[in-house]
Amino acid sequence: MDRREALRLLAAGAVLPLVGPKLVAMREARALVENSTGPHTLNAHQFATVKTMAEMILPKTDTPGAADVGATEFIDLILTEWYEDEDRGIFLQGLADVDTRSQELFGAGFVQCSVPQQVEILTELGEKMMEEAQTMENGVRLRRGAKQMPRGNFYVMLRRLTLTAYFTSEAGATSGLNFDMIPGRFDGCVQIAGVNSGKEGSNQR
Prior knowledge:
Layout: H1 3-11, H2 20-34, H3 44-57, H4 71-81, H5 85-106, H6 115-135, H7 154-167, H8 170-176, H9 199-202
């Protein structure tokens, strides 16, 4: 499997069942993230902004947060080696718009804002995302009744990348999804105490 194919699977990892060849590919792709030599698309300020926002989306509680699983490094790698120029530009422009918004509202970049101010900005981004989803011409319903999310929306991209980074990591899969690489023993035919196995017992209701 080549590098780009592995990254394609990693970018789609949150919606792939982690079994068989796909699980092997996911391991290969994850190794690319872990062996990354540092940001290539994001500069230091952008990296700090993405890291702050990702950690707010998935904060550390009794389970690891986005920062603990290298979500920002993952996002930078996907931006660099998988995203096309158009999508990369949309993401970076959206990131710049976040700072523009925080400057207009609070006179500081997003990272320099207080936590309540950052929460206000993310809330606005989430509300805008849902408004765009409501007004989409094609209101196709996805499984579990969720609406299709708008394409070209920075916050949608950030959330998906953050969630994918988390749930394709070992910590996220084991802590968040309770994914067990080697499932426990399964006994298909076990005699249950107190249940008759003969014909007489089987006819009882």
